[in-house]
């Protein structure tokens, strides 16, 4: 039996919403100008973020988006511990993946949400 996972993606700078569920920051670096109180995090999962080398190579360049997605998905496939940690949360209820990037379409949380949705079904 397959079921739809309840995963949302939001900027960490946006105020929390009632339907957020568990709020998980998926950036390797803490976002500038956000206090821990304002972030309202349940978990900061640095280990699921893209590697430093990949993040620096991508540098939020939309022209590299497709290649970034492929490389990041390969990193996720090779990172079963962090994936298991976030999947355990998702199986308990809604999860909101938080990111700090300005670009709402080209960021690691978008890739991660799609990857989890594809790989996390029963």
Automatic annotation (TrEMBL):
Domain of life: Bacteria
Keyword annotations: Methyltransferase, Transferase
Pfam families assigned to the protein according to its UniProt record, in alphabetical order: DUF488-N3i
Entry's transmembrane regions: none
Keyword RNA-binding: no
Keyword set includes Membrane: no
One Gene Ontology biological process: methylation
One function term, GO molecular function aspect: methyltransferase activity
Record-given protein name: Uroporphyrin-III methyltransferase
Protein species of origin: Acetobacter okinawensis
Taxon lineage: Bacteria, Pseudomonadati, Pseudomonadota, Alphaproteobacteria, Acetobacterales
């Amino acid at each position: 039996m397959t079921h739809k996972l309840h995963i949302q993606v939001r900027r960490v700078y946006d105020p929390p919403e009632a339907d957020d569920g568990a709020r998980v920051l998926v950036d390797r670096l803490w976002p500038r100008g956000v206090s821990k109180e304002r972030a309202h995090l349940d978990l900061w999962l640095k280990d699921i973020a893209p590697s430093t080398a990949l993040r620096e190579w991508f540098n939020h360049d939309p022209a590299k988006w497709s290649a970034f997605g492929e490389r990041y998905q390969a990193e996720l496939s090779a990172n079963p511990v962090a994936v298991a940690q976030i999947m355990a949360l998702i199986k308990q209820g809604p999860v909101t993946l938080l990111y700090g990037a300005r670009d709402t379409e080209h960021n690691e949380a978008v890739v991660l949400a799609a990857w989890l949705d594809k790989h996390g079904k029963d």
